[in-house]
Amino acid sequence: MRGAVIHAPGDIRYETVDDARIQQPTDAVIRTAVTCVCGSDLWPYRGAEPTEHSHPMGHEYVGFVEEVGSEVTGLRPGQFVVGSFATSDNTCANCRNGFQSSCLNREFMSTCQAEYVRIPHAQGTLVATDGVPDERFWPGLLAVSDVLGTGWWAADAAEVTPGSTAVVVGDGAVGLCAVIAAKERGAERVIAMSRHESRQQLALEFGATDIVAERGEEGVARIKELTGGIGADSVLECVGTAQAMRQALHSARPGGSVGFVGMPHGVAVDGQELFFSHVGLRGGPAPVRRYLPDLIDRVLTGSIDPGKVFDLTLPLDQVAEGYRAMDERRAIKTLLAP
Ligand SMILES: [Zn+2]
Question: What's the superkingdom here (predicted)?
């Protein structure tokens, strides 16, 4: 089969790779319906994370069950399934507590920009839809599996409640999906921090009530102006840089919360500053599996359309161009179809 392999920063190739096959009795193999390029794939692409050996890429997928291992009883070939970038048995203590992305048997998916994908712990990881959804829903379901699930977790971790004010730091696909999440969870005001007009438009379409284009301390000052001088109830940090985290912590009111879901790079939090801020802080890899049934339902009933974050669709064999377009910010997020 063929799939995307990174050889060095900037060097993504679509080439022959090892066939996806059942290795454990708890595995399944799926045929990819659609996959995509993630903002976090740009860290190794840009050389911000080292690539010591060439390796496959991709952790987002929806697809059709092709084959299941002997211990998988809840899935059968032909079903359409949605999963997550983190696998989970969905039975251990952490899974039962709703933190499936800390499953004691967790594996991180890393081979999904390919024609077929092996899914470990398939029974706990995958959720099958009722029948095969219409193709127009596939981008939305793919968003559910990663960027929307992560934006949802940002809103959960930042404790967005009905009637509250939420600030979203970051206008990538996760940030835009975090706008959807804050609105769906009942925030009355959703302030999106974005400097890019096309992304501002999508944020407004997704339910943002205000846009703040300023960054850093200027951005914080604007948030304070908009919130009676004290800051927001909830701040959803969807970038992972030191500047974004600082901006998030300073934008929350005393007693407010920050949910941080961007993979941190060079972020350090000052203990004394956090102590005196009275701000709650929670983050980590999103427990997407917990949210899957609810989010799949919201997409298939048409109440949300997170698939709009995909503004470029390419055949899978043009995956290298998909990376380039995102790296050069010509695309928010690239959808890839085998
Ligand atoms: Zn588990």
Answer: Bacteria
Residue boundaries of the structural domains of the chain: 2-132+305-337, 148-283
> What is the distance in A from the centroid of ligand 1 to the CA of 128?
19
How many whole angstroms from 102 Cα to the centroid of ligand 1? 7
CA–centroid distance, 60 to ligand 1, in Å, is 20
CA 120 to ligand 1 centroid distance, Å: 12
CATH number for the domain formed by residue range(s) 148-283:
3.40.50.720
Measured CA distances, 166 to 79, 183, 187, 195, 220 (Å): 38, 9, 6, 18, 13
For residue 158, the CA-to-ligand 1 centroid distance in Å is 24
How far is ligand 1, taken at its centre, from the CA of residue 138, in Å?
Answer: 27
**8 Å CB contact between 147 and 175:** no
Instruction: Give the CA distances from residue 100 to residues 75, 87, 108, 162, 238, in Å, rounded to whole numbers and listed in that order.
Output: 19, 8, 12, 26, 20
CA of 105 to the centre of ligand 1 (A): 6
Q: What is the pLDDT along the chain (338 residues), one digit of tens a residue?
A: 999 999 999 999 999 999 999 999 999 999 999 999 999 999 999 998 899 999 999 999 999 999 999 999 999 999 999 999 999 999 999 999 999 999 999 999 999 999 999 999 999 999 999 999 999 999 999 999 999 999 999 999 999 999 999 999 999 999 999 999 999 999 999 999 999 999 999 999 999 999 999 999 999 999 999 999 999 999 999 999 999 999 999 999 999 999 999 889 999 999 999 999 999 999 999 999 999 999 999 999 999 999 999 999 999 999 999 999 999 999 999 999 99
CB distance 112 to 313 below 8 Å: no
Q: Look at the pTM and tell me if it is higher than 0.85.
A: yes
Q: Measure 104 CA to ligand 1 centroid, in angstroms.
A: 5
Was domain 2-132+305-337 assigned CATH 3.30.70.20? no
